[in-house]
Amino acid sequence: MLVDSHCHLDFARPEDRAGVIVRARRAGVTTLLTISTKLAEFPAVRAIAEADPDIWCSVGIHPHEAAAEEGNSETLAALAAHPKVVAIGETGLDFHYNHSPRDAQIAAFRNHARAAQSANVPLIVHSRAADAETVAVLEEEGVCAGVIHCFSTGRLLAERALALGLYISLSGIVTFKNADELRNIVRDLPLDRLLIETDAPYLAPVPMRGKPNEPAYIVHTANFVAALKGVAPDEFARQTAANFFALFTKATPPAAPTN
Q: Contact, 4 vs 218, CB < 8 A?
């Protein structure tokens, strides 16, 4: 059983989405978490989750959108009360692109952190070129349940996030040729705090790199990281699935198949 802990199913065209989900299931991906990036588009994200018992969703505003959508903590927490909403985010800081002013990103990040604690759900954190600032917000806001999604930065962020009680999610980036430093960090991360994701339709792993990503391709990332960690692929799949349900406690594992 594999779990894609972070994908964007709403980015697929409606006529293509059913095929994406079917291919994921054929590849052994039994559970998907589809992520909100704009409040204006959240109803569409939620509808995708409502239509399938093994698809869950989050509610949040990507840091790129922080200047456009306020997203106060009360609104976010209220939306997170829906039974299919298992997390707040993705939120965080992106000081690489700076599509929103940094002060707006930080304010939105804090609002999301407070909403997650109010709603008693985990926080999904995006961090790019902002490791120290991300750690500062997490520590100052007392975040102790969440995940650093698509982790690809430095050891400081990983270690401080783990110390707070957060999980680390790995994407196809770990398979890229120039990701040696990331792989060195991943070797040291505890297996019981790892998740895997596609971030589909972005960041397709080797050997699918260059193609639009989709949840079925998580198999390549899972097998790659299993080998990196020196564990059997089945064991890695079981552990990361267990980690997912330990973190996202509102999500329920898929029903066992009947003969």
A: yes
Q: Is residue 258 part of a domain?
A: no
Which residues, given as ranges, of the chain have pLDDT below 50? Answer: none
Give the CA radius of gyration of the chain: 17
Q: pLDDT digits over 113-166, tens only?
A: 999 999 999 999 999 999 999 999 999 999 999 999 999 999 999 999 999 999
Domain count, the chain: 1
SS3 25: helix
Q: What is the b/e burial string over 61-85, where b = at least 16 CB atoms within 10 angstroms of the residue's CB?
A: bbbbbbbebebebeebbebbeeebb
- pTM of the shown model: 0.97
| Phi, psi at 123, each rounded to 5° | -105, 130
